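#lab-general

N.A. 3:47 PM
ok so I finally got the sequence cleaned up, no stray characters, all 84 residues accounted for. can someone with queue access submit it? mine expired

B.Y. 3:52 PM
send it over

N.A. 3:53 PM
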Amino acid sequence: MLKMYGSMLCPDCVEAREYFERINYKYDFVDITESMINLKEFLHLRDTRKEFNEVKSLKYVGIPAILTDDNRIIIIGDDIFKIK
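B.Y. 4:20 PM
back already:
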């Protein structure tokens, strides 16, 4: 199943979760502020994947972000709202 990394402290993540609920989009939510394990999992992903280079250069965290079952990052940030 897809994973969405985010935080309920992040307005964009809250909005993305509400959007996914409206369109009945199936995913697992990994709240990076819920535990150190979740944060480390996301930071490892963010710091080792080229897909995050632009958001890191802008000093953004890089959430919300979606990871597919086959280990691809498909969406970061506002592009989430392009999912139908």
